[in-house]
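RECORD TYPE: inverse folding
INPUT: structure tokens
STRUCTURE:
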């Protein structure tokens, strides 16, 4: 099983970014307004907490969550996300998030093939939870759909980027 020491600092930062970019891609595909965005952010955070509490979670997933909770890890994630999304529009956020997920897929294939399937499944789970967190296209909570066509397309793009 791989751990932080198996990766360069740059590779580890890419892995740390990936839970965030998995959610950002979906949120940016169909912006939900303030409440929807908050629900989507909460869904992503809940997925991190669930992984921490799950005794059967993959060890690499747990290592990323543990680093995510540490001040040093959060600082690295914040800097990386600021760099990745500097001067971006929503469609840029989707493209840049998918680029991160492709990088993560390549890193996992090269450095942690035994953990790759579980880690990618976890990222897909995060993106799915974010997609389902807020109704899209409604008015004042009425008439929306759970997962919009744009979100469905982005979920398919995420699966493709991860090679799943």
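DESIGNED SEQUENCE:
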């Amino acid at each position: 099983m791989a751990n932080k020491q198996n990766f360069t600092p740059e590779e580890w930062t890419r892995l740390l970014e990936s839970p965030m970019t998995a959610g950002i891609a979906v949120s940016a595909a169909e912006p939900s307004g303030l409440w929807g965005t908050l629900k989507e952010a909460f869904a992503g955070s809940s997925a991190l907490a669930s992984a921490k509490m799950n005794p059967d979670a993959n060890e690499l997933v747990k290592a990323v969550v543990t680093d995510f909770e540490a001040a040093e890890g959060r600082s690295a994630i914040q800097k990386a996300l600021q760099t990745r999304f500097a001067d971006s529009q929503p469609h840029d956020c989707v493209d840049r998030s998918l680029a991160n997920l492709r990088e993560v897929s390549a890193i996992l294939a090269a450095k942690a093939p035994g953990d790759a399937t579980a880690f990618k499944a976890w990222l897909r789970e995060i993106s799915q939870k974010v997609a389902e967190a807020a109704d899209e296209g409604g008015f004042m909570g009425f008439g929306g759909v759970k997962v919009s066509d744009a979100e469905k397309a982005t979920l398919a793009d995420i699966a493709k980027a991860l090679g799943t």
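NOTES: The chain is about 75% helix and 0% strand.
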